[in-house]
Model the fold of this input.
Amino acid sequence: MPLRWTNRSLVETAKTVKWALNRKNGFRNKRIRAAHAIRGILKVGINVIQKEDYLLPIVFKCDTGTQGRYHLKHKTTGDIEDGCMRSIALAVSGVQRIKIYFGIPKKKA
Done:
């Protein structure tokens, strides 16, 4: 997905993705992995994601994950380290609260 779609909060990202999914040419390149993944998750069903512990997204405190999002102007409470497509699919479907694993970064030596 374009960086400008993902450089703010999950709610704002989900609004943009939902808009794109509902438009015929919202995702200009139909081979975009995110579009395919999110459509697949929505088709299969989002209730499984929140029930299965191994599918919960992993979130780190802002800028503390393995790669961090330190380069973004808009800081959020946490950065999704793993499970971003699942999180976007949950938000697009209207889920208000998402269960997550809150990661603790390794201490620097």
User: Anything to note?
Assistant: Residues 3-103 form one domain. Residues 46 and 107 are 34 Å apart (CA to CA). The chain has one domain: 3-103. The helical segments are 3-6, 10-22, 33-44, 47-51, 84-92.
